[in-house]
């Protein structure tokens, strides 16, 4: 990220997440909602409508009337905050730039609905999408998630591989996902612990809030995909990390393990970027360009030039 925009981007992130250091989830949710309400809406769509998914609500964005690939989008927010509404602008930008329909999932949040509720919602949505219905033409399906949403995408793919492989998406796009909720010692957790908006303490706080208990589940592969013993048989993956992100290294390790397991995998570390860069397009042209590259990753599913 060019230095002229770095301070502004960090200030913008801090404004959106000023309550992250607190344990008051209501305050965090309020800060995020207020930030989202003050943003320009983003590109106009051919259609935007609320939908009812098997276990939770959702919102469908269609950039045009023609058939298009479908992206099942899972927003970030530490499995406890954020919503379809607060991610409206980045989802609109993704739909327009990728030329894809986007189904944004308003999965259930902790602490009201702790793990595995949000994983269950993701699995149920992907199964429903795969089932289609009468008159629904077959089309490519991409599951895309950022931060906590990226974790949900990985965990849902692992479950579907074992329970319903016919419902696996054609591509998984994982943007600054948390692959190991137990991590406190990786280089990125130590070197990027503070000073970049999203800090290591927040990562640990949200992880523990999601799983509850004494934290003993944080290494469970049903929570932390990096600890899954077998990653074979998963869809092609694009793993995008940010240089200045405390949870960067486990995500990159996950990409390496996917490739070693025979999964077609592309890993891209966005230089100069911080966690949550998809929300920073207004203040940083570099962040906007990085978000556009994610859209290009999604769009590649049209031509069959996905990760490889």
Q: What is this structure, in a nutshell?
A:
With 308 residues, the protein is an alpha/beta fold. The chain has 9 helices and 8 strands.
Task: Describe the protein's architecture and organization.
- By secondary structure, the protein is an alpha/beta fold.
- It is 37% helix and 17% strand.
- An 8-stranded mixed β-sheet has the order 1-2-4-3-5-6-7-8, sandwiched between helices.
- The protein is globular and about 50 Å long.
- The model is unreliable at 1-5 and 16-21 (pLDDT under 50).
What's the structural blueprint in terms of helices and strands?
Blueprint: H1 3-16, H2 25-37, E1 47-52, E2 57-62, E3 70-74, H3 88-98, E4 101-105, H4 117-131, E5 141-146, H5 148-163, E6 171-175, H6 187-191, H7 200-211, E7 237-244, H8 248-260, E8 265-274, H9 285-299
Parallel strand pairs: 3-4, 3-5, 5-6, 6-7, 7-8
Antiparallel strand pairs: 1-2, 2-4
Helix pairs in contact: 3-9, 4-5
């Amino acid at each position: 990220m060019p230095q002229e925009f770095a301070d502004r981007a960090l200030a913008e992130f801090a404004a959106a997440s000023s309550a992250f250091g607190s344990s008051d989830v209501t305050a965090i949710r309020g800060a995020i909602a207020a930030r989202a309400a003050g943003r320009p809406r983003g590109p106009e769509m051919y259609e935007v409508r609320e939908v009812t998914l098997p276990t939770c609500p959702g919102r469908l964005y269609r950039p045009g009337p023609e058939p298009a690939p479908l992206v099942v989008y899972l927003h970030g927010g530490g499995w406890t905050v954020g919503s379809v509404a607060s991610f409206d602008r980045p989802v609109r930008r993704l739909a327009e730039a990728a030329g894809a329909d986007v189904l944004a999932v308003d999965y259930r949040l902790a602490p009201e609905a702790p793990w595995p509720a949000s994983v269950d919602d993701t699995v149920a949505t992907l199964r429903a999408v795969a089932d289609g219905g009468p008159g629904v033409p077959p089309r490519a399906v991409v599951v895309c998630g950022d931060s906590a949403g990226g974790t949900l995408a990985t965990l849902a793919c692992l479950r579907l591989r074992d329970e319903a492989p016919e419902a696996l998406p054609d591509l998984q796009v994982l943007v600054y996902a948390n692959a190991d909720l137990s991590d406190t010692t990786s280089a990125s957790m130590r070197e990027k612990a503070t000073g970049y908006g999203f800090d290591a303490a927040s990562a640990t706080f949200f992880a523990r809030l999601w799983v509850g208990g004494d934290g003993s589940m944080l290494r469970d592969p049903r929570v932390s995909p990096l600890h899954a013993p077998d990653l074979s048989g998963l869809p092609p993956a694009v793993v995008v990390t940010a240089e200045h992100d405390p949870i960067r290294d486990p995500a990159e390790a996950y990409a390496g393990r996917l490739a070693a397991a025979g999964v077609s995998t592309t890993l891209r570390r966005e230089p100069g970027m911080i966690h949550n860069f998809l929300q920073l397009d207004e203040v940083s042209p570099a962040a906007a360009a990085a978000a556009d590259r994610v859209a290009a990753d999604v769009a590649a599913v049209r031509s069959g030039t996905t990760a490889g």
